[in-house]
Amino acid sequence: MKNKQRTLLKNLPIYLVLSFVSILVIFPFFWMVTTALKEQTKIFMFPPQWWPDPFVWSNFSAVFESQPEFPLYFFNSAYIAVLVTAGTCIFAALAGYAFAKLHFALRHIVFLILLTGMMIPTEVTAIPMFIWFTKLHLTDTHFPLIVPPMLGAGGMFGVFLLRQFFITVPNELDEAAKIDGCSPWTTFWRIMLPLSGPTLATLAIFTFLHSWDNYFDPLIFISSNHLFTLPVGLKLFTDTAGTEWQLLMAASVMATVPLLIVFFFAQKKFIEGVALTGLK
Question: In Å, how far are 224, 233, 247, 249 from 243, measured between CA atoms?
């Protein structure tokens, strides 16, 4: 018992620091949820009202009255995020396996060149990409939001992540498959891909979160209202007359729900993937 008390007292400063950091992290989410349930006049009152009184649940239905196309923004973000996540995982798994296990000329040099794609900020390539897609008549479509993220910095990160994982798989397993008559594709599909489940889950979560929250690319490439995604749609709650904070926060709460669901169902695989790849 005394040992437990001694350990508790010894770790007390760490617990206090972690508790303080946790409060800092949780506070914006708390403010978003409580603001979504307040009357507009009570959002910025002083002293602040920490708890809604009364709870204005109608703010959530008012979102759809203020922005009738909000469900369409939701659908656009959902299907784009799903396609980008699926495409990135497929591309990263195939390329990662090739760079880790297959032997071809200039393999390491090609991999280093591809890695440089991760080091170029998106803002640097925005203008050339916009000119290129304009000439191809692909602006104001969802194409620039789906294909480039699979093959750009996000895709390269996935290739790096999967390559690091496949390197850790013993070569004896690969050689045993060859002895049994497996082709490289069969080895990848039946042996390597099932083993990479936790790493793929980690990549899927990161990719889905990034695509769901992507504000910069839709702002550049999309101009038609019916093609907007959620991050751009949320901006519509702000105009020259001001910001409808209670509606903006209510819409933000609804936009956060899919992310929480994805993380809730994939958190076990996510933690396993982080542990396997050493990702921090």
Answer: 22, 13, 9, 10
Q: Which residue has the tokens 């042996």?
A: 191
Of the listed ranges 11-15, 57-61, 210-214, 241-245, the least confidently predicted one is 241-245
Enter the tokens of residue 170: 């013993």
**SS3 label, residue 243:** strand
- Give the Cα separation of 111 and 47 in Å (integer): 57
DSSP state of 248: H
Q: Can you name the residues that pair with 55 across neighbouring β-strands?
A: none
Q: How many CA atoms lie within 13 A of 273 on its CB side?
A: 19
3-state secondary structure 58-109: HHHHHHHHHCCCHHHHHHHHHHHHHHHHHHHHHHHHHHHHHHHHCCCCCHHH
Give the C-alpha separation, 244 to 236, whole Å.
Answer: 10
Neighbours of 162 (CB within 10 A): 28
Phi, psi for 242 (deg, rounded to 5):
125, -170
Identify the residue whose tokens are 């396609």. Answer: 83
Mean pLDDT of 84-108: 88
Report pTM: 0.81
Question: Could you tell me if 229 and 222 are in contact, meaning their C-beta atoms sit under 8 angstroms apart?
Answer: yes
> What type of residue is 98?
A
Q: How far is CA 227 from CA 143, 214, 275, in A?
A: 11, 14, 38
Q: Which residue has the tokens 């069969």?
A: 186
- The pLDDT confidence band at residue 84, using thresholds 50, 70 and 90, is very high
Collapsing DSSP to helix, strand or coil, 242 comes out as: strand
Phi, psi values for residue 169, rounded to 5°: -75, 125
Instruction: Report the C-alpha gap between 232 and 246 in whole angstroms.
Output: 17
